[in-house]
Amino acid sequence: MSGRVVRGVCAVAVMGAVLAPGTAGAVPGPPGGEPSVAGLLTDLQDLYRQAEEATEAYNATEEELKVRRAQAESLAEKLAAARGSLHGSRLAAGRLAREQYQGRSDISPYVRLLLARDPQHALDQGHLVLRAARDRMATVGRLTGDEKKADALATKARAALDEQLRLADARKKDQDAVRGRLRRVEELLASLSPERLAELSRAEEAGTAVAQRAFMASGALSSVGRAPSKAGGAALAYALRQIGKPYVWGAEGPGSFDCSGLTSQAWAHAGRRIPRTSQQQWASLPKVAMDRLRPGDLVVYFRKATHVALYLGRGQVVQAPRPGSRVKVSPIAANPVLGAVRPDPEAKAMTGYRPPPLPRGATAGDDTGYDGG
User: Fold this and answer.
1) For residue 330, which phi and psi values (nearest 5 degrees)?
2) What average pLDDT does the structure give for the chain?
3) pLDDT tens-digit profile of 63-92?
4) Which listed site, 42, 160, 240, 267, has its alpha carbon 20 to 30 Å from 367?
């Protein structure tokens, strides 16, 4: 997809409430004429939203596939060890069978024990007989146990392989869905003249400005500047170092990122592993009230939690916006806000914190946004 074409348009238009956006339909243009700018913007927003939903579905499937692959590799190692042990047990059982076969015409060791004239010698022989019997029982027991263990591991290994194949197929379908939706975006943008693209960009910028003013005036954010935790500050510093790197769906660094790839990697570099996708981050991390936000917290967007950014402070976030854009600093209301989560709720805020200086061009470029969610 042409990054130059996509970057010519910014898809931010907040129709309705900022914290609880509704679903707006495309605004039709004059009968027989071109679609209105508002209608085009709504269509574009919807396409980008669908693309990001498909991207997060792909990311979730990819993460599950990684887990299943690791499980399958572990099972394969255990199965190889079990088969090696089983082979040893079978060799031991074979030796036992040969010994019994070769000595079957001899007088039973128990009979020899009973006929022995020397009591002490008989007692010693008895110990040997008992030990030999225990060894034979242990050999048979190991063989039986190894066979059961190998059979169980083989069943699990086959199931793990089947699950890997299923997930690989699902990943391919998710991948095709992302590409299909982005292709529709490209087709829509390619059909517009430079003048229409400029109109869309101006409408989008105006929508962002209105949404941000409304959000800040709503009192949703505290007017008191808060300090991050030590880990939150480290995560934020990592995110700021990525400014200017391109958005690529499914990417989690180091050269490119998608939205949740940036947030998960930022916190990983701060020493705390968090889920890979924005939906998993929203579902599993502790919620934090918007008026309690501190830098490093994650701001989640849209009703389906399909976009995420790191809170910078002063009503701004660091985010990887969308295909064709780059990691940047954006207004918090560039997208319809769902809520926020905090990866380290137990950690105390730093003392003597000073907001980091922003790199040159940190706010330049397009912000993403989709109407509804």
Assistant:
1) -135, 160
2) 77
3) 887 877 777 677 677 767 766 665 655 665
4) 267
